[in-house]
Amino acid sequence: MNFFILTIIKAALVAFILLTALAYLQWLERKVLAHIQLRVGPRRVGPHGLLQPLADVVKLITKEDMIPSHVSKVFYMLAPFIAVMFALIPIAVIPFGGDLNIPAFNLGGMTIGPIHSTMELTDLNIGVLFILGISGMGVYGVALAGWASNNKYSLLGGLRSSAQMISYELPMALAIATPLLALNSLSFRTIVNAQAGYMFGFIPRWTIFQGPFPFMFIAFLLFIIAAFAETNRVPFDLPEAENELVAGFHTEYGSMKFAAFFMAEYCNMVTVSCVATLLFLGGWQPPFPAVYGSSLVPALLFIGAGLISFMHAASPARPFDRYTLPVVGLVSLGLGGLFAGAAAFEMFPDMVKGNAFLTGSAAAAGMMMPIVWFCAKALVILFVYIWIRGTLPRFRYDQLMSFAWTFLFPVALINLFLVALWVALT
Amino acid sequence: MDALLFMIFAAVAVVCGVNLVLQTHPISSALSLVGVMAALAALYLLLGGEFIAAAQLVVYAGAIMVLFVFVIMLLNAGTEHKTHKSSWAKIAGVPLLVAFLGMVAWLIQGLVPATESVVFGEFRKGTALEIGRALFTTYLLPFELTSVLILIAILGAIVLARKEIE
């Protein structure tokens, strides 16, 4: 019974954080794109437009949910559900951090715990294959949406998307197989644990740094390129190229059904970034050893953010910044203090011995440290996504296809072969 | 729990299979087939064949069926038309079907040994490691022959496609 309750709590937590993150990813994208194009981006709702995602959600929910008369109704309604369902499922097998150990504690006269678990929903033996399989099913949402809309732009978008996803799945699978050869497992947790430690004391043993130099790096680049195409992002966003296909497969969709497609796209981005982090960038392993102070990084970041907030609160750009920014600053300072405490606890364990509260909070922050590193790496990849959207123009459709089949696929195959040779020889 | 899950996914597979035949529109039939494939993957997983389950999902439910749906959409195949011509089929169809199903059930009952039954969680050799080892030791020759066969099929497809262009 404990297992069920724990799983439900974890699932609720992951779902809540993921959905919030999706909304704010969209805010981040608008903000970064705006700054790339020398604009300021959303700024009206909340400080720096921070409540804009909330406003967008309210707008999308309250819009009239109309169904065009010329669509095939069942598939038209089914498509967004399929898209969003197969986008949300893969997050279940992605581990965010190390082990979760909570000692027994009292809550209103009831003893809870001790809880021993892992920071993920489930650890499958075939986690990598599971993600490949489920993300392959996501094509149906897009293809069905295009076909059921009964509109030439939608149909072309859906066809393009299916062809593109089938084509780019091959180089992506080959690029994923490359680190698997070296790490010898299909479970994400084992894969990340195999990347712990440092070469020569300072180079992390992440997959990208393992083996003879260029191969793993090439595999990483291939994976990122194929992942861009799989998630229909610029420069491969042909299925929704607005200057030729209006909005592609979701031309006929509005209100929450459009939001479902939007959410699926961002969720796929998050999944792909997480997979790249786990397979190539060492998951939650810090980039340099704790003896050089890697545990202090989150503390310094949070304290810096807190200080900057206070600085802006002292000279507010708008009247209510005087009241909102100090709250943000205080929260950041508190989190920074917690992480600083955890780092200090790690370096000088005698310092907090005996004090139950200090020990507890330091241990909690210590368990959060891997999550911070994991999120930092995934966010870097997500930032690259947005960066490229603001930088590169779109491919032409025939260029997209010939790029996949005549360049990406052979390179991935040769790369895999060479890595297999290296693994066989060592 | 395992038996319950088995019943659920078996029911899904059967319902999707029946729906596949009953639907008149090709897209509906193709999607029912996807349902059958996915339910089969879940059944493999229940029986301990985790790698086979993943392969079923990736290859059949993912790649092959996407290709089916893609082709149906590309050709814009319409609903199938019923002929309503064969009166013989109307009269003899149902009794013959019942007789056929009865015969199949009788044959299967005769073939299945009465003592052994499947225990969920007993089979533990379905991991990628075990499958790979079996493929490259015991079944090396069939495995390599199959890959040559697939290569020939690909070459054939290329030859046919080339001819059509010229």
List keywords for this structure.
heterodimer; A: 426 residues; mainly alpha; two-stranded antiparallel sheet; globular; B: 166 residues; Four Helix Bundle (Hemerythrin (Met), subunit A); 6 helices
Write structural notes for this entry.
The complex is a heterodimer of chains A (426) and B (166). Chain A is mainly alpha-helical and 426 residues long. In chain A, 65% of the residues lie in helices and 4% in strands. The termini of chain A are far apart. Chain B is mainly alpha-helical and 166 residues long. Helices cover 77% and strands 0% of the residues of chain B. The relative contact order of chain B is 0.09. At the A-B interface, helix 4, helix 5 and helix 6 of A face helix 2 and helix 3 of B.
Helix fraction of chain A by DSSP (H/I, runs of at least 4): 55-70%
Radius of gyration of chain A: 23 Å
| CATH topology heading of the largest domain in chain B | Four Helix Bundle (Hemerythrin (Met), subunit A)
Number of strands of chain B: 0
Q: Low-confidence parts of chain A, pLDDT < 50 over ≥5 residues?
A: none
- Structural class of chain A, by secondary structure, is mainly alpha
Uncertain regions spanning at least 5 consecutive residues of chain B:
none
Radius of gyration based on Cα positions of chain B: 21 Å
The helix content of chain B is: over 70%
Strand order of the largest sheet of chain A: 1-4
Tell me the total number of β-strands of chain A: 6
Set down the secondary structure blueprint.
The complex is a heterodimer of chains A (426) and B (166).
Chain A: H1 2-36, H2 52-62, H3 73-88, E1 99-102, E2 105-107, E3 110-112, E4 115-118, H4 127-137, H5 139-148, H6 152-183, H7 188-193, E5 198-199, E6 203-204, H8 213-230, H9 242-245, H10 255-280, H11 296-314, H12 321-347, H13 356-389, H14 397-425
Antiparallel strand pairs in A: 1-4, 2-3, 5-6
Chain B: H1 2-22, H2 26-46, H3 50-75, H4 87-111, H5 128-136, H6 140-165
